[in-house]
Amino acid sequence: MNTAALYHRPESEFCYLYKDGSVHVRLRTAKDDIQSVKLIYADPYKWASSGVGNADNTNSTNYWVYETKKMKKLLSDETSDFYQTEVTVPTKRMDYVFVVEDQKGKKFVYTDKGVLPYKKSLLKSKYAAFRLPYFHQVDAYHAPSWVRDMVWYQIFPERFANGDTSNDPEKVKDWSDQAPDRQDFYGGDLQGVLDHLDHLVDLGVNGIYFCPIFKSPTNHKYDTEDYLEIDPHFGTKELFKTLVEEAHKRGLKVMLDAVFNHIGDTSPFWQDVLQNQEHSKYAAWFHVNSWPVVGDEDPDNFENSTNLTFDTFAFTPHMPKLNTANPEVQAHLLHIAEYWIREFDIDAWRLDVADEVDHQFWKKFRTTCDAAKKDFYILGEVWHSSQPWLNGDEFSAVMNYAYTGAISDFFVKRKISMPQMISAINDQLMLYRKETSTVMFNCLDSHDTPRFLTECKEDKNLFKQVEAFTYLNPGSPCIYYGDEVGLTGGMDPDCRRPMIWDEDKQDKDLYAFFKDLVAFRKENAELLADGTMDWCVVSESNGVLQLERKLGKKRLIGTFNTGKKAVDGDLKGVLLSNRAKIDGKHVTIKPKGFVISRG
């Protein structure tokens, strides 16, 4: 047995409080290396005597009274197997070790001090046990329960709909012009969103994720000028309040986008720094490495952007980085976070460039949001492994790009094999607590990526197949505005084309598909959140991939043909399909087709 591959860490994704006082315990081993794992656990103070002894009991021997629970192999990646079990200890304290049996039947005890030869006396003495000293529910990860049922809809406000031409910027482009340049304006606004809320209701989604709506000179608004004002080209606070109220009436949650890593160079704080330099009362609000700093009025200073004298987002001089360790900056940003919750009743914040902001600030941000509204959802933009932000005291979830990237890399780009995709998905699931995975934000495209239909080279059958596979996985899926009617586009700014409202130009078949997919997701929300994952069929020879999601007696089976020839099989209770011929139980699935069934 490869003992060096054994890994466990208390109070992490390997051991955490779950529901109703239960604890999830995981162990990582080398792949296909062991025969079984048992968890040995009990209250650390649960001792008994093995003999009567004399009057003062000096001849008796005390031993630890433990319980045994067999662990089940949950998932595997390319190099490791992950075992898990769920236990409950009424006294809310737990010591534990693992008894690991290799393929030859030899047993070892994995403890907090490493791997030891198996001895029953070792277990009775509770030597070097891992420990959960006390189950503090306040320290547990608490996912907002409503997010488990969500299908989000992302809106880039400047390109969704122009509902009020009176607030248009100068020289707006014609809405039918599907070739946006980086600095173009089309006149989209909040009234346009309000006018089309019923489109979202008809589609079936139950949450809106807005890209920034705060005052800014650009069309994207990620260079904020004033966080406490709606951009005048989008509307007013009164209009936004009405929009939130009307969304809530229709069962739609509202998530706003906050950019707290940096600010726009037109903000009064940065302008004061440019004017007064190191004497500015806001000098400490930013990361200035040397004085003087110069603004855009001296473009020669930015000929080589790596020579900037202050820190920015990337090397963009128009986005100076905020010093979130500064108490005044913290107070200002935390006031903003609370203001939009208390005054406008928003349900969630999405945090831009979240991984470049210090953890201490995010912990305060979380406390502020939780105090303002119960079950508030905090979503961080983190493109890589995100455990440091997902321990329950910062974010609820992150934009799950690593997860959906693996899906795209196999189905669309063919950069990885089927087993490699499965390994990557399983590895991502094992990075986080189960509750975390259920509320992750799964998007196949966004304002920061090419349109997914374009990534699929406008192959709508492939597009449907990948969407269906994604909706079968844990996490909250998101539709980027226009995907449902066939909107295409390459990398930014092309992915930010105006929404297609001309019904003659909308793809009605694709819209119907998304309606069915969203309805399927919502109808099976509990199973898809809590159900186990089982890769039933993984066949690179004919391209068949079959995934089962199971919860109790309920199950869903997704069968996907990623090969070049039609495949046959027997399935019952078909719920969704594309490019599939169904004759009773017999099903024929063409290439790029799929079937989701009950069995």
Rg over CA atoms = 27 Å
Mean pLDDT: 95
Report the span from N to C terminus.
Answer: 37 Å
Protein structure class = alpha+beta
**Residues in β-strands, percent:** 25-35%
Number of domains: 4
What is the CATH topology classification name of the largest domain?
A: TIM Barrel
Provide the CATH architecture of the largest domain: Alpha-Beta Barrel
Q: What strand line-up does the widest sheet have?
A: 20-19-18-17-14-13-22-21
Range of helix content: 10-25%
Number of helices: 15
Uncertain runs are 52-58, 297-304
Sheet having the most strands: 8 strands, parallel
- The total strand number stands at 28
CATH class of the largest domain: Alpha Beta
Shape: globular
CATH superfamily heading of the largest domain: Glycosidases
Characterization of this structure:
The chain is α+β, with helices and mostly antiparallel strands and 599 residues long. The chain has four domains: 3-137, Immunoglobulins (Immunoglobulin-like, Sandwich), CATH 2.60.40; 150-272 and 328-527, TIM Barrel, CATH 3.20.20; 273-323, Oligo-1,6-glucosidase, domain 2 (Alpha-Beta Complex), CATH 3.90.400; 531-597, Immunoglobulin-like (Sandwich). 24% of the residues lie in helices and 26% in strands. The protein contains 15 helices and 28 strands. The strands form six sheets. Strands 20-19-18-17-14-13-22-21 form an eight-stranded parallel β-sheet. Strand 23 and strand 24 form a beta hairpin. Helix 9 crosses helix 13 (460-471). The longest helix is centred in the middle third of the chain and has 18 residues, at 327-344. The radius of gyration is 27 Å and the shape is globular. The chain starts with 14 loop residues before the first strand and ends with a strand. The model is unreliable at 52-58 and 297-304 (pLDDT under 50).
